[in-house]
Amino acid sequence: GLKTLKDEVKAKKTKLKSLLMQQKYISSEDEAWLDHEGNLVDLETVVDKLETAASKRCTSTSKQNDYRGPSQP
Predict the structure, then answer these.
(1) pLDDT 10s per residue in the chain (73 long)?
(2) Are 46 and 5 spatial neighbours (Cβ–Cβ below 8 Å)?
(3) How far apart are CA 4 and CA 8, in angstroms?
(4) How far apart (Å, rounded) are the C-alpha atoms in residues 22 and 63?
(5) Closest Cα partner for 16 from 38, 36, 41?
(6) What are phi and psi of 29, to 5 degrees?
(7) Distance between CA 2 and CA 12 in Å, rounded?
(8) Dihedral-angle region of residue 58 (phi above 0 means left; psi in -120 to 50 means alpha; beta otherwise)
(9) Residue 28 to residues 21, 35, 42: CA-CA distances in angstroms?
(10) Phi and psi (nearest 5°) for 24?
(11) pTM strictly above 0.85
(12) How wide is the angle at C-alpha 37 spanned by C-alphas 36 and 40, nearest 5°?
């Protein structure tokens, strides 16, 4: 999932940044990739929010299942 994507992006970023450090040419497509697709901050934020929401939902569902109603005398 996300880890695989991060690993793939990291490998490509490392390669491109290495070329830039050596003052070698990279294509405009690679530059655009570094600026957009290669930037996982937005994706990580979305995944984080989804995981938090799912966790809260599981906790809420668990609490609802534990509810036994008013106690009977």
Answers:
(1) 778 888 999 999 999 999 999 999 999 999 999 888 888 888 888 888 888 888 887 776 655 565 566 666 5
(2) no
(3) 6
(4) 57
(5) 38
(6) -65, -40
(7) 15
(8) alpha
(9) 16, 11, 22
(10) -100, 160
(11) no
(12) 95
